[in-house]
Amino acid sequence: MLGWTGAGLIAGGILLAGVNIVRFSPRGEPLTTPQGGGLWWITLGLGLVVLGVVLQCNGRDPDAGPAKRRSWGYTAFLLVTGALCLAVACVGFSPDLFVVTAGSDRVHRADSPGTSTLVVTLVIALGMVLMAAAGSWPRLQPQSRSMPPAVGGLALVLVIELGLRAAGLYQATEHTVAGADAFPDVPVPVPTDVAEAGWTWEPPADTDLVAVEPGAFGP
Fold first, then answer.
1. 15 or 167, which is more confident?
2. Which residues sit opposite 37 in a β-bridge?
3. Rounded distance between C-alpha atoms, residue 66 and residue 161, angstroms
4. What is the tens place of the pLDDT at every residue in 35-52?
5. Partners of 215 in the beta sheet?
6. Are 155 and 130 contacting, i.e. CB atoms less than 8 angstroms apart?
7. Which of 100, 91, 97 is nearest to 165 (CA)?
8. Nearest C-alpha neighbor of 121 from the set 45, 53, 49
9. Total structural domains in the chain?
10. Does 219 reside within a domain?
């Protein structure tokens, strides 16, 4: 189950990379991580290699049966590639992407292409870690056992993408309330003359104005 969930994450990351290329390239937006530049292409290439190996293994032995244990070499390969992808994600991350990480001394800058590209590196790295933790190659047959976790991995990519993009677009709004110092202890004196009229007021119909009394903050 972990193996196919990881494979679904890797496949989802590859699909997301393709969507980003189609979505952002025609608009001339740079398809790079916020700080890592084009290093994310390394992650995409490693994801294609791992997914290709999984499909090749299932093509050589398509029959359903017990999952075969991987050799330590393949496990080490998955761990190394997963660590490399995670390193690319860490290098490409910028605190300015999110309000929470930007802090008060930095400026938050929304970067949709950069956030989506960062998601590609994160989900592919997570997929490789899950595949390494599975201990055996994912078996396609029976599909009733392989497809649900694979689809779950694809759905998880969508959730992570939408969640991080929404977090990146969030702009904090400061709300302030006037404190006690904003209200004077002594009421403003009633004016004795008028230099300029900013507005006029007259009593409603069928009423008489008796007097103008001083209020807490003016007449």
1. 15
2. 33
3. 34
4. 767 777 888 888 888 888
5. 218
6. no
7. 97
8. 45
9. 1
10. no
In SS3 terms, 21-43 reads as: HHHHHHHCCCCCECCCECCHHHH
SS3 state of residue 48: helix
Task: Find out whether the peptide bond into 187 is cis, omega within 30 degrees of 0.
Answer: no
CA distances from 53 to 90, 133, 153, 183 (A): 26, 17, 18, 72
Cβ(138)–Cβ(146) below 8 Å: yes
In a domain, 44, yes or no: yes
> Is residue 62 within a helix (H) or strand (E), and if so which, with residue range?
none
d(CA 107, CA 103) in angstroms, rounded, equals 8
Residue 133 CA to residue 127 CA, distance in Å, equals 10
**Residue 17 included in any domain:** yes
pLDDT tens by residue, 176-198 = 766 666 666 777 777 777 777 77
Task: Identify whether 218 is part of a domain.
Answer: no
Question: Which whole-number Å values give the CA distances from 63 to 5, 50, 141, 148, 187, in the listed order?
Answer: 20, 21, 6, 19, 89
Strand partners of residue 69: 136
Is residue 107 within 8 A of residue 34, CB to CB? The reply is: no
Which structural domain range is residue 13 located in? 2-169
Q: How far apart are CA 189 and CA 71, in angstroms?
A: 89
The pLDDT of residue 61 is above 70: no
Residues 6+ apart with CB under 8 A from 135: 69, 70, 75
pTM of the model: 0.64
- CA–CA dist 203, 216 (Å, integer): 21
Q: Which residue has the higher pLDDT, 55 or 65?
A: 55
